[in-house]
């Protein structure tokens, strides 16, 4: 049984190597035997990685998508790849896990980010009205991620109001935040991404361009959080027990 961690990636450039380093560092203390594959890559695409293992005789695969919600890549791209291999090999089998963002422990990670932001804010203003804004990737074609992020925010145990918005799609934060900012002195913004990379920087630039009336406190994304590692291992254990 071969375990493959599936990441979005990029077709060209150094990002995929950085992602591999990130993932191996995150799971360095675990004994999980895995390979990293990308949905976009010229050398380590999911199809190429599966092909290499099939050539060595492997026919059983555990796929753990390092994707947060059930948008295009989770709902369409990965199933199409699995179906293509099943059409070629009668004896091949796949098990694949749920996305990371719907795991119950993701609530704990967001709450931790908010607590850390509160500590940084403590000595600046004595009286404030604060809200939490969680921003994920989003999709123009799939509404399911909107629902999943909203569900996550509803499960947060916070003193602050919490809002769920996206970088892309019908819930794009640029549409809503100017009105939200009028109601609060401070906004704690939690980017819900695997790591602080291109998309998180894009969110920061867009937030700056909005010139909101609230003071912004932008937390780190998931990064090398030990709880993210625990979620990945939990998804793996669920596949083993299935």
UniProtKB/TrEMBL annotation:
It comes from Staphylococcus massiliensis S46. It holds the Pfam family CbiX. SUPFAM superfamilies: Chelatase (SSF53800). Keywords: Lyase, Metal-binding. InterPro entries: CbiX-like, Sirohydro_Cobaltochel/CbiX. Signal peptide: none annotated. It comes from the Bacteria. PANTHER family: SIROHYDROCHLORIN FERROCHELATASE, CHLOROPLASTIC. GO terms for molecular function: lyase activity; metal ion binding. This is Sirohydrochlorin ferrochelatase.
